[in-house]
Design a protein that fits this description.
single chain, alpha/beta, Oxidized Rhodanese, domain 1, 11 helices
Length: 284
């Protein structure tokens, strides 16, 4: 890993004009998909490019695969190159939603073999409120070449998750809020509940009310059940609704020294699209 994953706004301020730094704005709103790009157009960190969750960081939605399917690696690599990201770039990603969308791009870059990627804590509002520079100028991007080296081991697919449901050496972690996990409400997907056997670990427990990541000791305590499983040698697969909000949990565990954690990218929206897949409700 090239330096820390989580960096402060002060860290970025001191490095933002270094030639190998590429800043990426990933602000997004699931309920208003145009909001992130509109916010970027209105005001962003100087030099930042914008990558959209729906159009840049996801493949087209099909019958299966979830609401935000992973793009083909070569297609994603081409998009990254168009954004000025090369294999030699140090990428700094930010959003304004507690790191959820920034963590998705962090995971995707690592999936393609790129470790020099950082997530800025707190997000754009904290940057702006600190009096740091912002602009509405359109960034002129010099295209680059990005050659992917895909780490297939980071990804768990639906068939594999289904095969491992009853295995004691595997732990599934659901990153959605408790009400969605228990099946009491489902505002987005067609079915409510969770994958049988999964425990609940809401991703927002990693950050405070300002959107800043909690101290390492606090995160270790929050993730104690998962850490215990990892220390016991169990395989951990993390999921959420569509492979986005699971990424902060993967990042948090990576920061605690557990890079082997895997992501089920299709997540609940993929799992629940198969009529034959079992669904659980309530607490495990």
């Amino acid at each position: 890993m090239s330096g820390p994953i989580l960096v402060s706004k002060q860290w970025l301020l001191a490095r933002m004009y270094e030639p190998d730094i590429v800043i990426v704005d990933c602000r997004f709103d699931l309920g208003w998909p145009e909001a992130g790009r509109e916010d970027y157009t209105s005001s962003h960190i100087p030099g930042a490019v914008y990558l959209d969750l729906n159009t840049d960081l996801s493949a087209p939605v099909e019958a299966h695969g979830g609401r935000h399917p992973l793009p083909d690696p070569d297609v994603l690599a081409e998009r990254l190159g168009r954004a000025g990201i090369s294999n030699g770039s140090r990428v700094v990603v930010y959003d304004d939603q507690g790191g959820m969308y920034a963590s998705r791009l962090w995971w995707m870059l690592r999936w393609l073999g790129h470790d020099a990627v950082h997530v800025m804590e707190e997000g754009f509002t904290a940057w702006k409120d600190a009096g740091y520079p912002v602009t509405d100028a359109q960034q002129v991007v010099v295209p680059a070449s990005f050659a992917p080296e895909v780490r297939t081991e980071m990804l768990a697919r639906m068939e594999e998750v289904r095969e491992k449901l009853d295995r004691p050496d595997v732990l599934l972690v659901d990153s959605r809020d408790a009400a969605r996990y228990r099946g009491e409400t489902e505002p987005i997907d067609a079915k409510a509940g969770h994958i049988p056997g999964a425990i609940n670990q809401f991703w927002k427990e990693n950050v405070d009310e300002r959107g800043a990541w909690k101290l390492e000791a606090q995160r270790r305590e929050q993730l104690a059940a998962v850490v215990e499983a990892l220390e016991a040698g169990r395989e951990v697969i993390v999921y959420c609704g569509s492979g986005v909000s699971a990424c902060p949990n993967v990042l948090a565990l990576h920061e605690l020294g557990y890079p082997q954690v895997r992501l089920y990218a299709g997540s609940w929206s993929d799992w629940s699209s198969y009529p034959e897949n079992e669904i659980a409700t309530g607490e495990e």
